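Look over both lines:
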Amino acid sequence: MKKLYKIFYTALILCTFSCTQSNEQKIEQSVTSLLQRYPNATLQDVYKSFFQDYFGVAHLLAERDKVKSYIEYETNSATEFDSTLYEPCGWRGNFVRVNLLAIKNGYISSDALTDAFIKSREASCDSVTGEWLGEWQQIMVATRRAVPTMENFQHDSALIAKNLAEGKYMMHHSRQYNEYYHPHYRIIHRSIFEQEILPLLPR
């Protein structure tokens, strides 16, 4: 099963960076893949994944001691984890979600994940641009095509639009996503993940 995670990761990265596909096709394929893996995800959860891919960790806590402390606290206090050890965010695959289960199972240390997280700030975007706002419209269209009957789509799209208009760009996972999938992870830039984290994970 662990081998499948790496095959999936590699395949999605190749798909993401294919020059023969339009951005719209890549976005739709990424949305479809996400919703196949997490059928109870909402539009809010789709937003979060693509936002993480676009912006990275620039907006998150940066003090190393506090980062490590939060990682260790969450790892030790969580009782359930998603089974996927890692997966790319969004459609570009710029950032990778690394499951804290990798620490819980002894594959990587909290220090290794903390250092990778801190280094990822340098590759992160620290401001919201019109490009992101336009891209989000494409993502919503792709999501509507992928799941025409998505629960609370209109409500969530209106709420996200309101938050964006007010300059509130960060979103949490939805309540039902947390209940079904138990997400406990940190996002790491893809190049740092491949160099420092991936070699430590089971093959």
User: Anything to note?
Assistant: Residues 1-20 have pLDDT under 50 and may be disordered. The chain has one domain: 2-200. The beta strands are 86-88, 95-99, 185-189. Residues 2-200 form one domain.
